[in-house]
Write a structure and sequence with these properties.
Layout: E1 7-12, E2 15-27, E3 33-40, E4 46-53, H1 54-57, E5 62-64, E6 67-73, H2 83-87, H3 92-95, H4 99-103, H5 115-120
Antiparallel strand pairs: 1-2, 1-6, 2-3, 3-4, 5-6
């Protein structure tokens, strides 16, 4: 079920055209219809309010100006890692490297470059 703060993919004539974030869903004076306020995630940002039935908000096809439209709620894809590897995250000790480990035998010295220094001393 699509709700406030969800990101939706807007389809026009079965072609995905834009993403939007649901800002609000308010009842419309017309029974069983809702005013859905969408922040269009594009440049420049634009806010639109559409009046739709709840079934349309949740993914059913509808028509706007004679064009077939659909909203599809976007969910974050599942990580490629296996669930077992996420169950036991590595402890901080396994990820810690001492200063000596990072320096190694001295042949692979690295320089740290400060962005602030680059900004103050353009070459």
């Amino acid at each position: 079920m699509t709700t406030i703060n969800d990101v939706v993919l807007i389809h026009l004539e079965d072609t995905p055209v834009s993403f939007a974030r649901v800002e609000s869903i308010l009842p419309d004076p017309k029974k069983d219809w809702y005013q859905i306020k969408l922040l269009m995630l594009q440049v420049p940002l634009q806010v639109v309010t559409w009046i739709l039935k709840d079934t349309y908000i949740n993914g059913d096809d509808f028509f706007m100006n004679g064009k077939k439209m659909r909203l599809e709620r976007v969910e974050c894809p599942i990580d490629a890692q296996s669930p077992q590897s996420n169950a036991n995250p590595p402890t901080s000790k396994t990820n810690e490297k001492t200063e000596k480990d990072m320096q190694g035998n001295g042949s692979n010295k690295s320089n740290i470059i400060s962005f602030a220094d680059l900004k103050n001393n353009p070459s």
